[in-house]
């Protein structure tokens, strides 16, 4: 069984984000090998050139504004390296990953997850041994 470890996002990696605060039912898009969906109140995020959506409640709980349109992730994440190819259900849809990618979660129990390429994860996150 993989070992899940606590990490924090490096402070020099803010995201640009705008809330989808329009009278809309949202929209669907294709990313991470599957169809994704966002709804009114979700956030459209540009994370170092990678654009995706984040559930409104999750974004409000895990990010803080540091400037106009700029946000930093302030809560820890728990991550493990995938031992084989697979897919992970997310709040927006499903994400497919390959062996060696990171499976990342907003809580230690492994809920509210997503996956990231190892090089990208390691450039943005660092171990959080303070806990």
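Sequence proposed for the structure above (131 residues):
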């Amino acid at each position: 069984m993989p070992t899940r470890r606590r990490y924090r996002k490096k402070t020099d990696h803010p995201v640009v984000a705008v809330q989808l605060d329009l009278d809309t039912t949202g929209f669907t898009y294709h990313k991470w090998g599957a169809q994704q969906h966002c709804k009114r109140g979700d956030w459209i995020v540009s994370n170092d050139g990678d654009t995706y959506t984040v559930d409104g409640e999750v974004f409000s709980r895990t990010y803080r504004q540091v400037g106009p349109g700029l946000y930093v992730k302030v809560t820890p994440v728990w991550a493990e390296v995938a031992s084989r190819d697979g897919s992970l259900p997310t709040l927006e849809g499903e994400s497919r990953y390959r062996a060696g990618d990171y499976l990342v979660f907003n809580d230690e129990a492994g809920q509210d997850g997503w996956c990231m390429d190892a090089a990208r994860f390691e450039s943005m996150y660092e171990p959080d041994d303070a806990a």
